[in-house]
Amino acid sequence: MKMGRDLRGKTGKSSWRCPKSSCLSTLLIIFLVFSHSTVITALNYTYHKRVASLRLARIQKHLKKINKPAIMTIESPDEDIIDCVHMHHQPALDHPLLKSHQIQGAPSMRPRLSKEHGQRNYTGSNTVRGAWQTWHQRGLCPKGTIPVRRSSVDDVLRAKSLYHYGKKQHRMHLARFSQAPDVVSGNGHEHAIAYTQASQEMYGVKATINVWNPSIQVKNEFSLSQVWILSGSFDGSDLNSIEAGWQVSPQLYGDSRPRLFTYWTSDAYQATGCYNLLCSGFVQTNNKIAIGAAISPVSSFSGGQFDITILIWKDPKQGHWWMSFGDNTLIGYWPAELFTHLADHATMVEWGGEIVNTSPNGEHTSTQMGSGRFADPGFGQSSYFRNLEIVDSDNSLSSVESISTLAENSNCYNIKSSYSSEWGTFFYYGGPGNNPRCH
């Protein structure tokens, strides 16, 4: 008995047709399974979309908090957006400890120059010039405002999380070389530094730093050259640090340009502090320098050498830690309220370079420090710090006479110090990273 009509074509193949009741049951099962699968897929898509929307909303809420309303906006040739924000509306004043803080227009006094300054030529040769900032090509912010580099959603998304945006990695293990400040072994941070632990109390640091454009191998690595002012215990959670210099950080800024930066922490990088103005704390008073903006021009091999001068000192009367840039241009200050140990004085200062080595492809990174050359070639090839000075208890600048130097792996990055009547205490430093001798 035939259950259905035999359909046979030219190929000789046949097709079987099921009974009406069986077909309906089969189709119903297929429909239900397909429909259930579609519903699950739709729910998952909606769920993931909802999570993304919530994250985006949190990011936008945070950006609204740190991107203050601008009186004027300047679009830099390097695509940075610089907002001119009213000085009394700046991010610093959102800090809980600064709710009633009155902005100080200027320090009560600046560090006094020592006698040796009158005999020293700070400009060096004609090939050494001060570096400035790229956004100046499009204008300057009016008086009464401060320039703030605008943060974007993309900036935050490049960070590990919203919480980590603008912050240094929390350093869980503070295994240090003997007596060396801010040197952390085993977490990928490598240094070539000079440091001093003067017998007297220290109230400031000064140096002139050569600016280069080192290459970064992967986006979550960085290369920086900076000064550190430190106080507190190096193996605990109460380390206070004030830092400033230049850095190349694709993850933080989205490009590979050297940029002026600042940093502070009062608890060993755990919860307090941040880069630049990405959290409340640092009070800016200057309308011409944008912290976090690109420095231009930069040094070139056997060509023009460009450097920046940074001075950080504690005001003897107000207790705030002031920062000046270049030819004594005041940038602003870290209020005394932010700190514990640095509310008094510094116990150590440091100068030098730092990189992050994530060991891409299982090898040492080729991220460069300084110019990407070792210290040996010297001027025109190697990066330098010159005229190293500290501020003493009398609020006087004095040349550093004795420094210690350290490089964890001198086959990757090294440092060599010296002294001259023109440059005072100075050193060359840096390196290429990955090379046949660097492991």
Keywords:
alpha+beta, 10-stranded mixed β-sheet, globular, disordered N terminus
Describe the structure.
The chain has 439 residues and is an alpha+beta fold. It has 3 helices and 23 strands. It is globular, with a radius of gyration of 29 Å.
Number of helices: 3
| Unreliable runs | 1-18, 20-50, 117-126, 171-180
N-to-C span: 83 Å
Instruction: Please report which band the strand proportion falls in: under 5%, 5-15%, 15-25%, 25-35%, 35-45% or over 45%.
Output: 25-35%
Give, in order, the helices and strands: EEHEEEEEHEEEEHEEEEEEEEEEEE
Q: Tell me the radius of gyration.
A: 29 Å
Coarse shape: globular
Indicate the structural class.
Answer: alpha+beta
Main sheet overview? 10 strands, mixed
- Helix fraction, binned, reads 10-25%
Number of separate strands: 23
Average pLDDT, to the nearest integer?
85
List the helices and strands and how they pair.
Elements: E1 7-8, E2 14-15, H1 20-66, E3 70-75, E4 81-86, E5 128-130, E6 132-133, E7 145-149, H2 153-158, E8 189-196, E9 204-210, E10 223-231, E11 240-248, H3 250-253, E12 259-265, E13 283-284, E14 295-296, E15 305-314, E16 321-325, E17 329-334, E18 348-356, E19 383-391, E20 397-399, E21 404-407, E22 414-420, E23 424-430
Parallel strand pairs: 5-15
Antiparallel strand pairs: 1-2, 3-4, 4-7, 6-14, 8-18, 8-21, 9-15, 9-19, 10-11, 10-18, 11-12, 13-17, 15-16, 16-17, 19-20, 19-23, 22-23
In short:
The chain is an alpha+beta fold. The chain is built from 3 helices and 23 strands.
